[in-house]
């Protein structure tokens, strides 16, 4: 495992930056773990800012598939995926 950092930018409908966030984590279980942590950071930013109409974007097809799946994720990253889905719904995703 190694260190990782996440960066998230919140933009309005015109593409202008409204808020941003970055964090460093002392551990990383790989690329998929890093992408999920960035998604979590995006959800938490939306909640902090009080945004209710939110579109989340990403380029990792494996992570996107996790969010679109109707099946319970029993993998090592399943609890993180569930956290993002539950809190993302609260952020209007």
UniProtKB/TrEMBL annotation:
InterPro entries xrefs: RNase_H-like_dom_plant (IPR044730), RNase_H-like_EbsB-rel (IPR052929), RNaseH-like_sf (IPR012337), RNaseH_domain (IPR002156), RNaseH_sf (IPR036397)
Top-rank lineage group of the source organism: Eukaryota
This protein's name: RNase H type-1 domain-containing protein
Species per Swiss-Prot/TrEMBL record: Buddleja alternifolia
Residues in RNase H type-1 domain copies: 5-80
SUPFAM superfamilies from the UniProt entry: Ribonuclease H-like
PANTHER family on file: BNAC02G40300D PROTEIN, REVERSE TRANSCRIPTASE-LIKE PROTEIN
Pfam families cross-referenced by the UniProt entry: RVT_3
Gene Ontology molecular functions: nucleic acid binding; RNA-DNA hybrid ribonuclease activity
């Amino acid at each position: 495992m190694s260190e990782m950092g996440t960066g998230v930018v919140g933009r309005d409908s015109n593409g202008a930056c409204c808020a941003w966030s970055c964090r460093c984590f002392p551990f990383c279980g790989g690329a998929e773990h890093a992408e999920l942590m960035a998604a979590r950071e995006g959800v938490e930013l939306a909640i902090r800012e009080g945004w209710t109409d939110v579109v989340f974007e990403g380029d990792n097809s494996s992570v996107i598939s996790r969010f679109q799946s109707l099946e319970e994720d029993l993998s090592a990253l399943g609890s993180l995926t569930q956290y993002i889905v539950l809190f993302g719904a609260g952020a209007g995703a």
